[in-house]
Structures are given as C-alpha cells and as structure tokens.
Amino acid sequence: MSLSQGRSYLAIPGPSVMPDAVLRAMHRGAPNIYEGELIEMTAGLFPDLKRVAGTSHVATIYIGNGHAGWEAALANVVGPGDTVLVPATGLFGIGWGEIASGLGADVQTLDFGRQSPMDPARIEAALRADTEHKIKAVLAVHVDTSTSAKSDIAGVRAALDAAGHPALLMVDCIASLGCDRFEMDAWGVDVMVSASQKGLMVPPGLAFVFFNDRAQAVRARMERVSRYWDWQSRTDPDLYYQHFCGTAPTHHLYGLRVALDMILDEGLDHVWARHAKLARAIWAAVETWGQGGPIRLNMADPAHRSHAVTALSIGAPHGTNLRRWTQDQAGLTLGIGLGMATDDDPRADGFFRFGHMGHVNAQMILGMLTTVQAGMQASGIPFGPGALDAAAAVIAG
Predict the structure, then answer these.
(1) Are 110 and 122 spatial neighbours (Cβ–Cβ below 8 Å)?
(2) Whether the predicted pLDDT of 364 surpasses 90
(3) Fold classified for 31-265
(4) Residues 348, 336 contacting (CB under 8 angstroms)
(5) Which of 12, 155, 232, 315 is close enough to 355 for a disulfide, judged by CB 3.0 to 4.6 Å?
(6) Does domain 9-16+267-396 have CATH number 3.30.565.10?
(7) pTM strictly above 0.90
(8) How far is CA 224 from CA 72, 74, 170, 390, in A?
C-alpha cells in the first residue's frame, strides 16, 4: 500500500527544497526590464551575494547552471595552451577539468579518489615541481556533491603560498555556498563559482562568479574572451542589460532576492550551525544503523564530510531498492549514487545520497531518517537498532 500521497520531499543534493516565499516571489507577470523596480532590486543583489561569499571584491551573475559558471570563470583567466592543476576528489573536479580541456587548456589532474579530500601536501609538491610556473590556475572543489567530500580550501591556499607559486586559486562552491562555512577573502580564494539551486534555494538557472583583483589582472592580459562569458562588461555596465549580456533572468532574480533576505535574516553563522547540526544527526543515525547492517558513510572522517550532502554505500541492489521504496511508498526522493559506479556495481545500485541543504529543518531530517529506516525494514535490509534515538539526541542536544 502506497502512502506517498501529500506533499513529497525532494531530499536530493540539488535542486534543493525551495521556500514557499521564493516561489511566491517568482509567481508574477514579467516586469519592465528597462527601468523601475527590477533595476533597483538587482543593484542590491550584488552586495548581498558578496556577504554570503565572504568577499569585498566582485560578484557577477550568469544565466546558466553550475557548468556554465565553471566555463565563465575559466574563459576569463585561462586561454588555449595554458596549464591548470585539478586536485580532484570525486566526480566534479574531473568535470571542471573537462571544461578547461574543452577551452584548450592542458589539464594536470591529481586524483584523490572517492573517499579522501584533497591533500594540500601533494598539491604543494606539484606546484613546487612546476619551476617554470606553467600552471596558471588550481581548480579546487570545496564540496564534491558525488562523494560528499569537503576539502580544506585554506590549506590549498597555504600550499600555493608555501610553494611560492603565482597560480590563481579557483574554487567551486556550488554545493557548499550557504551550507558549509566558506570565506572567500579570508581563505585567499581568487575566483569562486556557485549556482542558485542548492544552498541559495532558488531554481536552477543562475550561476555566480566572484573574483578579486589578482584574477582581474589576469583577465586584463587575456588576448580574447568570448563576449558572452566576459565578466568585464558585466561588472560596471553602462546599461542594465549588460549585467546579463542580454535579457535579465527576471523571475530568478525575484526569487534570489527573497532567498538572500532569508539567509541574511537568519544570519550566516546560524545557517552554517543549522546545517552542521542536522548533518551530525544524519551521521549519528547512519553510524548506528551500520552497527548491524551494510550501510556506511562514504567519508570516514567527520572533518572531511559536507554539511550539505551525505553520500552512502549500502551494497547492490539495496541502494536502488531503498530509493524506489522511499519514493513510491512514502513520497521521499533520495539522491542516486552519482559517479560511484564500480566494476562490481556498474550501475551504482549500492549507493545513494541524502541532500540536506538550504531550506531544511529538524523535523524534515528526522522524518527522512524515519522513512529510510522504514524502507530498510520493508526491503529486508539489516540495520542496527537505536539510530533514530541517536539522531534525536543530536537534535535535542
């Protein structure tokens, strides 16, 4: 008997749950794109985006997804024949490197696998070996959405500084912005990329590129930058439409305004603390289940786990069977085991993910965990007792 009727819960790591207030703000007729309230509202978005990113430098908005943000950032500072270093953990560092390769860059990859964060010592060694300073940028992913690995970005900056290397530090914060603590300026990041559909709680369609003076100096030396990706005209436009190289993403901007208000009204420190506590509740439940069954957290060290997404292994075919049960029988959609296929499990049926980013609270997380336990019970997957009590204790503590 299916009990999935009623409001469903999309607990995947993006698109995230969208607040009703954001949806209401977007549910309107098209505004005037030449003058009036839209132009005035947009002017206030940029300083608030910079507050969330922890930067006093420049924020730009592109119409596109996270991959568009990757290309926009690269197009302004990396040209054909340039070399980039990609310390990759999981799927998304590799993906950013593929975008760089498509632009004609020479990509050097340091692959840290699927269960380890980036190692700043190995990055420093690679930079020291580059005595001719051919590497123009280091492309680092703060949180890899496929593995839930969180890497030490300040440590990567320290590696660059220790090696005395002039490469730009470029960071993907698509999964982490507004969820895990991130401080662009304090951590020495030159270029940061994010997107609207995760911690910022807005539908997919906006990408953000933040950059500092060092990155702008590199941009000024570029022989050619695609007109659409060029951040130059977007940063200080003569006309409003130049912010977006064409028609503005009007309704996304209205939603973003409300989402930023919600984040700043709550306070960034509280946003980070909320995500951290909810993540710890999930970890406590999974670790307790794992004492009597096959479920495991992908990242063993809590210090290297994201507070926005949790990747899990449970053995094939349990991952797929569990996801199907929670969705079809209870209205809870869990994330697939993206990028986790192995020779023994080519469809990644033994993996799944929890998304717990953005507009989430304690009762949502506790409800998700209870539903997953019901799914394991219904599917005949063994698990240790006491997991829900363990999660509740974290929430109550």
Answers:
(1) yes
(2) yes
(3) Aspartate Aminotransferase; domain 2 (3.40.640)
(4) yes
(5) 12
(6) no
(7) yes
(8) 13, 12, 20, 56
